[in-house]
Structure formats: C-alpha cells, structure tokens
Amino acid sequence: xxxxNIPIFIPHxxxxxxxxxxxxxHIASQLEPLSPSAxxxxxxxxxxxxxxxxxxxxxxxxxxxxxxDVSLQEAYLRQVSPYLIKGLIHGLRLSTRPDGIDxxxxxxxxxxxxxxxxxxxxSCDDEVLAAAGRGMALLQIVEASRLLKEYGFxxxxxxxxxxxxxxxxxxxATTRVIIGLRPDMVRIYPTLVIAGTELARQWREGSYQxxxxxxxxxxxxxxxxxxxxxxxxxxRLGLQPSQELQSAETLLAGPYHPAFGELVExxxxxxxxxxxxxxxxxxxxxxxxxxxxxxxxxxxxxxxQHRRNFLRLEEELxxxxxxxxxxxxxxxxxxxxxxxxxxxxxxxxxxxFIRRLIxxxxxxxxx
Length: 367
Ligand code: SF4
Prior knowledge:
By secondary structure, the protein is an alpha/beta fold. It folds into two domains: 3-258, Aldolase class I (TIM Barrel, Alpha-Beta Barrel), CATH 3.20.20; 281-359, GMP Synthetase, Chain A, domain 3. Helix content is 41%, strand content 19%. The strands form three sheets. A seven-stranded parallel β-sheet has the order 1-2-3-4-5-6-8. Strands 11-10-12-13 form a four-stranded mixed β-sheet. α3 (70-85) links the parallel β2 and β3. Bound molecules: iron/sulfur cluster. Residues 12, 15, 17-19, 22, 24, 63-64, 97, 120 line the site of iron/sulfur cluster (SF4).
C-alpha cells in the first residue's frame, strides 16, 4: 500500500527556543500561522489528489507541537480527528521536542488519536546539545522516549550530524544510545547553514566549519549500517529538496545534495563491494575478469553516480573492468561475485558485512 503524508506545517508556534541551526523564527515572522479552522480545506485538497487505496497520514511538523498552548494543540487535533474517525486517514503524527513530553500531554494526544510522535533529538551528546542551544540534555531524551513507548506511541527520532562540537565518534555514540531506546523510525539530517540563523553568524566569523559532502555521506553511512544491524528503519536521510534549499541566498553552506540518501546508499555499496573484492583477491590465481552479482533494484547503487564506485574500485584494487550481472537470486543489499569461467560464487550479505566492521572495531558493537 502506498504511504502518503499530508503535511501541515506550523512554523515555530509554541517554541520559546532559538536553536542555532533553526530558521523557523525567521519563517514564522514571514508567515501567518495556519489557523485550526483552515485545516479541513487543506486536508480536503490533499485528499482529492491522493490515489485510492493509499495509506494516509496527517503529519504536523515544524515548531514543537506539544509546546504550544494545550488549547491550541486541541484546536488543531479537533480539526483532523473526524478524518481519522471516518477512516479517511489512517494515522496522525507530529513532531516535538523531548522536553515537551509528559504523561498529561501523552494522554491528551492519545485521546485525539495521535499514534506517532517524532522527537527532535539531534544529538545525545550534552556538549553538542548545549552548543546547539537546544536547552535540554540527554536525560530528557531518554525519559521522553521511555514515556512514549510506555504510552504505546510509535517513536520517531530525528538526528543531526555536523553540529558545532560534533564529530564522527559522537555521532556513533549517539547512534548507540538511540538504538538502546528502540525507536520505530529514525531520520538523519546533515547540518546546513541557513541564512538568518546563529549558525550562519558563527560560520561567517569562522568559528563553525561545516561538514563536507563526503564527510557527511561517510558518517551517515556508518550510522545507517548500525541502525540496519538492529532492524531500525531510517526513513529519511537528508532534507527534502526544496526551492529554498536550492537558493544560495538561503543555503549558505553545508553538505546539501538533493539525493543525499542515495549517495549514502551508494557509499555503502562501495564499501561492501570493496570488502567482497578483497575476499576474492585473497584467493590464489585470480587474474580473470570479475563479475559482480547484484539484485536488479540495487544496480545503480552499486555502480554509483557517474560510475564513481566502479572507477574507484577499479583504481584502488586494480581489478580491471568490473562487470555487473543483475540477479534476482541475490537478495537486496547483498552482493555476489564470480570470476569468468568459474562456477564458484562468493557472496556478502549486508548483515555479515556489518558484523565484520563491528568485529574489526570499525563500528561500535553491542555491550
Ligand atoms: S526547538 Fe525546534 S522549532 Fe524551536 S528553535 Fe529549536 S529546532 Fe527550531
């Protein structure tokens, strides 16, 4: 069933904070906040364009939903609740801050049929949280996640990499903590420098250095592998492309790419193929052309943008020209390899690949 979100953007309403990367106060100053009474028209417009048989969710995002006045939260939820009751939509989600969660709020959200809450966590490192002006600490993240689980909500976690004071080890440590909280889904965003933010000021004065695109891809690939190993879905990597983000006036710096998630997947396939090719090279007498077997859905991820993965592998490992063979017999995220004229096939499935990285100490493992 196709999943479709009806997004309802409520910028910065209820948010008393000024996180250094956030430009929502700026957006909010330019936009009238959407009044609750305007919601049915917006939802009806979306519903008219959604193919029948889709799984539809209404998603409140922007700002910190549960930090608005409770009467305003209920005013919004009252408008969408009839769609849920009539079965016109199938779920209701919202995003908020961990310190905007307490038992009374959760009872109220339950009453109105909210089933998924996404927490803007960003990092589990208290120094990074403080430098980002988040005004909260790890303790609140853990407590909010625990409460959401206890009250039967689906838990979403939003993370950022590349904030001031952040680094790869902190990102991997954050990933470990989040895995321990057993979320139902995760989103990961590289930090971007947006005009009008405190981060933009720090970047201009040279006290903040943004991640390069390869750095962001590499650390997000490691985080994705860790989540995959624990069967936690990463439902978004990188911000949704928008006209705003294509504009140099808005996006001042940072590892933005319209297909960031795809770049991360391609990088993982590069690493996995490299591992398999090294396995094959360790065998004696291997001087024939190499054929890589891949599930048809993964071909472009294996080859990479502009054949980048292949060019890199051919150059680094001296393999000669690599050839791709599509095969339904190879599971998604797995790879096979054989030398021309031979029957023996080597395979490397994703889980085994991750296990190897953990065993070598390249990724954190379980306690
Ligand atoms: S809490 Fe959310 S909306 Fe408020 S400033 Fe921080 S990122 Fe922006």
